[in-house]
Amino acid sequence: xxxxxxxxxxxxxxxxxxxxKPMRIDKFLMEKIERVTRSKIxxxxxxxxxxxxxxxxxxxxxxxxxxxINVHLTKPHDTSVIVPEKMDLDIRYExxxxxxxxxxxxxxxxxxxxxxxGTLVNGxxxxxxxxxxxxxxxxxxxxxxxxxxxxxxxxxxxxxxxHALAHLAKQFFDHSVTRKYQALVxxxxxxxxxxxxxxxxxxxxNRLQMHVFRDGEGGKHAVTHYKVLEDLYYVSVVECMLETxxxxxxRVHMKHIGHTLFNDDRYGGDKVLKGTxxxxxxxxxxxxxxxxxxxxxxxxTLGFDHPTTGERMLFDSELPDDFQQALDRWRKYLETRKxxx
Length: 341
Fold this sequence. Notes:
There is one protein chain. With 341 residues, the protein is an alpha+beta fold. The chain has a domain at 180-298 and 322-340: 2-Layer Sandwich (Pseudouridine synthase). Helix content is 24%, strand content 28%. The protein has helices at 25-32, 38-46, 120-127, 137-141, 162-173, 249-256, 279-291, 321-340, and strands at 9-15, 23-24, 50-52, 55-56, 62-63, 68-74, 90-94, 98-103, 153-159, 178-186, 193-197, 199-202, 210-213, 223-231, 235-242, 297-305, 312-316. Strands 7, 8, 9, 10, 11, 14, 15, 16 and 17 form a nine-stranded mixed sheet that branches. The chain has a four-stranded antiparallel sheet with strand order 1-6-3-4. Strands 2-5 form a two-stranded antiparallel ribbon. Strand 7 and strand 8 form a beta hairpin. Helix 1 (25-32) crosses helix 2 and helix 2 packs across helix 5. The longest helix is centred in the last third of the chain and has 20 residues, at 321-340. The chain is elongated, with a radius of gyration of 22 Å. 38% of the residues are buried.
């Protein structure tokens, strides 16, 4: 199982019965949606995640016949098999509401088939043991509002209460969260920056891959802004800023424009895609693959409004050693190449 970054929401569309009697919206939704707490419903209403006929409502709003209700709630996860595990979590910030941490490469975020232990959630379960959480919050979602791939390193945020979770979920939903990644990709660019606005969905020919669907005939809307930070001739370092958070978004969008992530075996980046045919060069690339045995992607910057204080918080993280070593190796190769020209 591979964890993926994706919107953490499920959308409930409900139509009130023709004979529906007036009923408070919060009570109505409690009856209509399974496995949901009253506090979760009330927080969703508070942060504008519940709309009736397209308009936001308050908790005391009374439903009428034939009305259309849209509700966005964080997706529940089956965490019944979670075993708290003591592990050295790289926590960058923590208070009564949130935890910001740095995930290493190779760590799966959520338990699942083949990964019931050793996940970030197992570590959080141990770390939060004894911390007073809202009823059912950790059991349902482990306080996480977003995910990143198993092979990707970088910053994530977890919440300790329903208020914080709803507040952060709303920010992710509104695309007001700052998420900047650094990636090493194949090839160089004609333009120093750009925007990729292409729909992404499951590849019908390979269920392990995501795929760009032209003209929106499939998939979900996805937007990635990119800027070239360094041109290393056969590869480039780019900063990618996510406007949306679809599964494998950066990996798929970069491949779509001809710049597959370096050593991304899922999308063909673990082959020599740019460069010479000389065996010496191929050996150099293979040795660089060994330095970073994963897709070269790092969640470097994370910014959001604090759920209680409202203060804008911005966190930045250093490139992990394997990424840095691969970069240094490419830089040295480029210097050597220039000396021979």
